[in-house]
């Protein structure tokens, strides 16, 4: 009887061991499958991709930096008076070739004869300012026709290009002709005036493009300069060298922007 009981006990123990072994093998197998299964691995990964709609939105403002790589940003505005003329096309060609936009101050009476050139000027991103109708000192300043003539020129520009420019340039500069009374009229009409910081004196240097270049390059030294030039043959001849030399001095080129106007008149009148 005791012998039978011992046998049963031994059999039961063996069965228990076998069952435990089977369970251990099965558990190990399923664990191995869960670890190595690609589907499981992907399912258990945390999504590290952030959709555009989930990303924080930061408003970026395209503002020209005053400094770049620790260096002060130097800017020059190339401006051209007394057009449109036969020389405007060549000036525009040079500006386009160099990826530069210029600021032009044109006489209203000249515009009808050069409509296509003026349209091109605007299409290529240049600014179409006006420069009176007659360029006559007596009529503009002594007879007080300044604002009247500028409005006429603005209307012609609007008719040809669709743009009504607010920026004008006084023939012969704003001082002394642009009196307080005339400046009051300008301010009431919403006009802005730009004189200049560097005068090329190109108008009195026919046949001397080197002299024009020298006048400009030697006097452009400040962080922001506005260069006065005219639509003249000698200016066309000097323009590429002026651009090259100013770039060597570290200057970039800008065009006037009404949304970013800064006062530049000899009277220091911030209204205009």
From TrEMBL:
<feature type="transmembrane region" description="Helical">
    <location>
        <begin position="12"/>
        <end position="32"/>
    </location>
</feature>
<dbReference type="GO" id="GO:0016787">
    <property type="term" value="F:hydrolase activity"/>
</dbReference>
<keyword id="KW-0812">Transmembrane</keyword>
<keyword id="KW-0378">Hydrolase</keyword>
<dbReference type="InterPro" id="IPR011330">
    <property type="entry name" value="Glyco_hydro/deAcase_b/a-brl"/>
</dbReference>
<dbReference type="InterPro" id="IPR054858">
    <property type="entry name" value="PgAcgDac"/>
</dbReference>
<dbReference type="Pfam" id="PF01522">
    <property type="entry name" value="Polysacc_deac_1"/>
</dbReference>
<feature type="domain" description="NodB homology">
    <location>
        <begin position="74"/>
        <end position="254"/>
    </location>
</feature>
<keyword id="KW-0472">Membrane</keyword>
<protein>
    <submittedName>
        <fullName>Polysaccharide deacetylase family protein</fullName>
        <ecNumber>3.-.-.-</ecNumber>
    </submittedName>
</protein>
<keyword id="KW-1133">Transmembrane helix</keyword>
<dbReference type="InterPro" id="IPR002509">
    <property type="entry name" value="NODB_dom"/>
</dbReference>
<dbReference type="InterPro" id="IPR050248">
    <property type="entry name" value="Polysacc_deacetylase_ArnD"/>
</dbReference>
């Amino acid at each position: 009887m005791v012998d039978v009981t011992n046998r049963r006990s031994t059999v039961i123990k063996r069965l228990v061991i076998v069952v435990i072994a089977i369970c251990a093998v099965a558990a190990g197998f399923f664990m191995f499958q869960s670890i190595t299964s690609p589907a499981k691995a992907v399912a258990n990964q945390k999504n590290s991709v952030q959709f555009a709609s989930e990303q924080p939105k930061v408003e970026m403002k395209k503002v020209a930096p005053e400094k770049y790589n620790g260096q002060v940003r130097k800017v020059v505005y190339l401006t051209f008076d007394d057009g449109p003329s036969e020389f405007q096309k060549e000036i525009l060609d040079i500006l386009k070739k160099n990826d530069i936009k210029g600021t032009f101050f044109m006489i209203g009476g000249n515009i009808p004869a050069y409509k296509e050139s003026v349209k091109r000027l605007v299409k290529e991103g240049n600014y179409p300012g006006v420069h009176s109708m007659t360029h006559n000192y007596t009529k503009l300043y002594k007879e007080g026709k300044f604002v009247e003539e500028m409005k006429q020129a603005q209307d012609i520009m609007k008719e040809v290009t669709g743009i009504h420019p607010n920026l004008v340039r006084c023939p012969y500069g704003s001082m002394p002709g642009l009196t307080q009374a005339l400046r009051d009229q300008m301010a009431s009409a919403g006009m802005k005036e730009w004189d200049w910081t560097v005068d090329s004196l190109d108008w009195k240097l026919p046949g001397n493009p080197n002299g024009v270049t020298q006048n400009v390059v030697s006097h452009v030294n400040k962080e922001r300069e506005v260069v006065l030039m005219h639509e003249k043959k000698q200016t066309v001849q000097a323009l590429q060298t002026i651009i090259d030399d100013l770039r060597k001095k570290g200057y970039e080129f800008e065009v006037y922007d009404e949304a970013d106007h800064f006062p530049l008149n000899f009277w220091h009148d911030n209204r205009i």
